[in-house]
Amino acid sequence: MKIFLQIFTLGLTLLFFGRGSSAGILEDAMEGKAPIIDLTYPLNEKNAYWPVGNYTPFKYEVIANIKRDRVFSGRYSTPEHLGTHIDAPNHFELNKPSVDQIPFEQLVGHAVVIDVTDKTNKDADYVLLLSDILLWEKVNEQIPDGAIVLLNTGWGKRWHDFEIYKNKDNNDRMRFPGYSKEAAVFLVEKRHIKGIGIDTLSGDCGNCSDFQVHHVINGAGKFILENVANLDKLPPRGATLIIAPIKIEGGSGGQCRIWALLPR
Ligand SMILES: [Zn+2]
Question: What whole-number distance in Å separates Cα of residue 23 and Cα of residue 18?
């Protein structure tokens, strides 16, 4: 009986804390044993932001320093949609949750990383197609329910220079890749994703009109992560994401810290 109990307990432990499971990865991370990729760019004045209207660069100023005031402290101002940030469901749709209302369980999930850099190298306007998703599934597995899908377009290589990141043409149109509406609809309706992310300024491509992807994703109550860093360092699957957005009451989104926990 004692041996049976020991085996039973061991089985339960493996089930909930075994390596490979999300709980196991979290346990490993807490002990500093899991590889962690920070998907967040540091905030500074050079950060990319949506370059229209009243949007302004990130600003930081020191308001107290240790030499003079015996304490170091600063203040900052920023648009919500600057740097690595989240678009809350209310960003493009009425009566949807604001950034402070997105529940924890939606902000933690399995990452699916789709790499389209070979396409975007040839075509800056490339949008993720349904066929790209089906090809990913053929090579890997069916995208599990509740996944967070991240699109690696290779645009991270341009992050250091806002001009080549925006990539404006002679007609003042931005040219960078994104998702297609068709892909967004499929991910929401057939794969029940928690949200999507991308390493560019927007889920919709720069030269796309009407923000169709934003409407599909936000309309379904889901979020979009934009200007996500280090997507080229993630495996196609196996990473667990933790997204921690700033809690602006009623906000349309905002800066967030995003960690990817990798299995050992
Ligand atoms: Zn945004």
Answer: 7
